[in-house]
Amino acid sequence: MVARIGVLALQGDVSEHIDAFRSAARTFGSEASLEVLAVRKPAEIPHLDAVAIPGGESTTISRLIDKFGFYSPLVEFEGGMFATCAGMVLMAREVDDPRVHPLGLMDYAAKRNAFGRQRESFEADIGIAGLDRPFHAVFIRAPVAEHPGNGIKVLGSCPEGIVALEQGRHMALSFHPELGNDPRLHIRFLKNCGLV
Ligand code: GLN
């Protein structure tokens, strides 16, 4: 059986995520049993095994989710979701910007652009629970998570706040694991979802 991972292709770095999932699948020799595709229609969502929401501009992605009818299919989706940067903003229970209509699939509050102008874009080695060595993370106008609920597992933090979390099969990261050649977090997500 072929498992299908859909990368929400409304805005943001879609092709980078597709490449990262394909290279994660290759690590396991699973490229034939894992199909990775760009998702452009809400009707595709229920046929997927996992969904990725890429980085971009959360206000724009949120507007497009509502406009094109993705909101309910995403909220009702039963598979795991992998959300990075703007995606992490969208997954939250609440967001500090009224222009974002959060999906509320993970129990934390998202704070947009949490690193201020001095640190708009930067790279840092972040310790992630369960990884044997730090993850070299690329942050671009990144959010942080605050006030995690009981079901949340915090995987990594910076002085500014939480930057990596899991809840069930969902994973949210405030940085961009698809930039760079380290597939460990994509692999971890695929394993959590039982897809490799
Ligand atoms: N600052 C953006 C937002 O809050 C996220 C930036 C990104 O995804 N790289 O939507």
Topology summary:
Blueprint: E1 3-8, H1 14-27, E2 34-39, E3 50-53, H2 58-67, H3 71-76, E4 80-84, H4 86-91, E5 94-95, E6 109-111, E7 121-126, E8 135-140, E9 144-146, E10 153-158, E11 161-167, E12 170-173, H5 184-192
Parallel strand pairs: 1-2, 1-3, 3-4, 4-12, 5-6
Antiparallel strand pairs: 6-9, 7-8, 10-11, 11-12
Bound molecules: glutamine (GLN).
What's this entry about, in short?
This protein is of the alpha/beta class. 23% of the residues lie in helices and 30% in strands. The chain has a single domain, classed as 3-Layer(aba) Sandwich (Rossmann fold), CATH 3.40.50.880.
What would your notes on this structure say?
By secondary structure, the chain is of the alpha/beta class. It has one domain (3-192): Rossmann fold, CATH 3.40.50.880. It is built from five helices and twelve strands. The protein has helices at residues 14-27, 58-67, 71-76, 86-91, 184-192, and strands at residues 3-8, 34-39, 50-53, 80-84, 94-95, 109-111, 121-126, 135-140, 144-146, 153-158, 161-167, 170-173. The strands form three sheets. The chain has a seven-stranded mixed sheet. Helix 1 (14-27) links the parallel strand 1 and strand 2. Residues 55-58, 85-86, 89, 112-113, 140-141, 143 line the site of glutamine (GLN).
